[in-house]
Write a sequence for this structure.
């Protein structure tokens, strides 16, 4: 940015005023300005506010202006951490997200490999079906899966001969149903991305490996997997982030967190605390916990990127 | 990838193809069931022996959806929100992606890492402060309260994804443009923009979907003025946990899903190559 050139210095070698390597000056900041303004006002500031509210006494009385807001320090957090339900919800969130990530990645990668093994027509059919699942909005996906598994009118219970078994009644069957829907709508991203990655591997590399006598398995383990590593890291991190903050599916499919809150995950829990029982400061504290967990995941991702020596 | 070694490999390929078709059928089945549920007459839906076909399709459910609820209006609301978000975030992201790929400047890496971190921020956790922010702006119960947050939330990913496309435009082209006397603005809008258009399309898919699908903000910010509702909330009117109107829910779901499906199918080629470009980079 600084363009201080000593007066007496020899004239700099002539350089084009414009061009990819031109002295940037203020232009990049001009281009960045709209993005920085929007992100500053609608992302950074709310994050700051979230942190702030989590340290305040902030309930309906303060929102309507009936009582002044007062600083509570860490009291909201101590209240939250002393609550057994919070730990139960946290555990459920981590377990549920982990199960979703593992299933999504397994299904997505397996189908990506399958796609490379088939001719155009089956590939097109699978691609089209996957795009359909991908495009389906979370709300409609949730209601459709509920309908499929409806105890009275759904086809699944008939097909499996389960009578009028209610999937949303039990804690684990409800989580399982939501997991199915989440995997259904999120495996296509993994499948398409990994498939694009496999296709981008140059054919010569594989031919060379085959000529050197490598078996199919060996090619997978020693050639493709290392080449696909950056892509696998991206889809894993994305899946972790998406599945950790699932809201709509849980909210719609379990009716706001299940019977007696048995299917709550952190996001739904925060929403219920804030908007159903007006405990905005507790809800914000939960939000801060979610934020910190995902920040840790992101920092781990950045370290991985740096170790791979990728240039930003 | 590898050449099939004679006919011994054929059975394996046939098995793989059969599996692919079977999986495709299973994956597509919920969507088929949604369409079927939307056109089944009421008597067939409320049947304990559901059949995977219908002998007398009817549009009753659609009629109910559009008459009982101002569904047309909600559809337009959703469309306004999604298209505004797409247009604004594409423009802003294009400028930002150009800045971070075609210039070298101090804090460039810092800015990039900030975008990456911003992308990871769980927007759902920001509902509470966002609610108060929108209230202070006087935007609660307006479509603006859905548009503004979604622009912010789709930006980091859009920038991150566009980066690869902008980078792929060769520098020699830029040099040639300047040598021919083009200004920076001219290069930006008349040369670079058309070249990265496929990338913009791929990016728009994500912004469109996140805005179109949004349920949490619609539920939290459109609290009393139902004329400003978007489709997700309107759909749930038909879904009452005790006695859901499945025909209505399926018809409403169809109305909400079909535009996105069309959009996806239209851009799918660009989407796949777009993702390839973004991840390869």
């Amino acid at each position: 940015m600084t363009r201080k050139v000593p007066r007496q210095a020899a004239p700099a070698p002539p350089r084009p005023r414009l061009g990819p390597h031109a002295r940037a000056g203020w232009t990049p900041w001009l281009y960045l300005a709209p993005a920085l303004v929007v992100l500053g006002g609608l992302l950074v500031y709310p994050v700051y506010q979230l942190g702030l509210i989590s340290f305040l006494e902030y309930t309906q009385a303060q929102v309507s202006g009936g009582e002044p807001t007062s600083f509570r320090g860490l009291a909201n957090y101590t209240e939250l951490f002393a609550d057994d339900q919070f730990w139960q919800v946290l555990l459920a969130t981590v377990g549920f997200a982990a199960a979703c990530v593992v299933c999504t990645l397994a299904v997505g990668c397996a189908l990506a490999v399958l796609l490379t093994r088939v001719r155009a027509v089956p590939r097109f059919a699978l691609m089209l079906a996957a795009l359909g699942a991908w495009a389906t909005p979370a709300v409609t996906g949730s209601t459709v899966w509920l309908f499929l598994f409806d105890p009275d009118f759904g086809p699944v219970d008939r097909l499996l001969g389960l009578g009028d078994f209610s999937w949303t009644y039990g804690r684990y069957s409800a989580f399982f149903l939501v997991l199915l829907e989440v995997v259904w709508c999120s495996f296509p991203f993994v499948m398409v991305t990994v498939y694009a990655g496999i296709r981008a591997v140059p054919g010569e590399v594989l031919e060379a490996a085959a000529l050197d006598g490598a078996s199919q398995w060996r090619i997978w383990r020693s050639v493709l997997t290392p080449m696909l590593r950056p892509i696998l890291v991206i889809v894993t991190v994305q899946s972790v982030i998406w599945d950790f903050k699932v809201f709509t599916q849980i909210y719609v499919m379990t009716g706001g967190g299940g019977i007696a809150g048995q299917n709550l995950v952190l996001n739904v829990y925060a929403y219920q605390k804030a908007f159903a029982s007006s405990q905005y400061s507790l809800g914000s504290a939960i939000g801060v916990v979610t934020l910190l967990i995902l920040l840790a995941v992101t920092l781990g991702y950045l370290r991985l990127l740096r170790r791979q020596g990728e240039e930003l | 990838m590898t050449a099939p070694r004679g006919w011994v490999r054929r059975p394996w390929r046939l098995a793989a193809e059969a599996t692919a078709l079977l999986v495709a059928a299973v994956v597509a089945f919920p969507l088929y069931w949604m369409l079927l549920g939307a056109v089944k007459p009421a008597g067939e839906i409320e049947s304990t022996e559901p059949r995977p076909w219908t002998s007398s399709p009817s549009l009753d459910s659609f009629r109910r959806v559009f008459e009982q609820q101002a569904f047309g209006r909600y559809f337009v609301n959703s469309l306004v929100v999604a298209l505004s978000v797409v247009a604004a975030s594409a423009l802003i992201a294009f400028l930002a992606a150009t800045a971070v790929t075609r210039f070298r400047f101090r804090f460039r890496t810092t800015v990039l890492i900030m975008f990456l971190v911003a992308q990871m921020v769980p927007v759902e956790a920001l509902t509470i402060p966002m609610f108060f922010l929108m209230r202070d702006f006087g935007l609660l119960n307006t479509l603006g309260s859905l548009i503004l947050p979604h622009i912010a939330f789709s930006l980091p990913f859009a920038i991150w994804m566009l980066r690869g496309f902008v980078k792929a435009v060769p520098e020699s082209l830029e040099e040639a443009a300047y040598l021919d006397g083009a200004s920076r603005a001219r290069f930006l809008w008349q040369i670079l923009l058309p070249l990265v258009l496929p990338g913009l399309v791929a990016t728009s898919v994500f912004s469109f979907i996140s805005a179109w699908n949004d349920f949490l903000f619609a539920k939290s910010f459109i609290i009393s003025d139902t004329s400003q509702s978007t489709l997700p909330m309107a759909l749930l009117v038909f879904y009452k946990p005790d006695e859901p109107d499945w025909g209505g829910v399926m018809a409403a779901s169809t109305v909400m899903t079909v535009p996105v499906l069309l959009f996806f199918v239209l851009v799918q080629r660009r989407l796949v190559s777009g993702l390839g470009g973004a991840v390869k980079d």
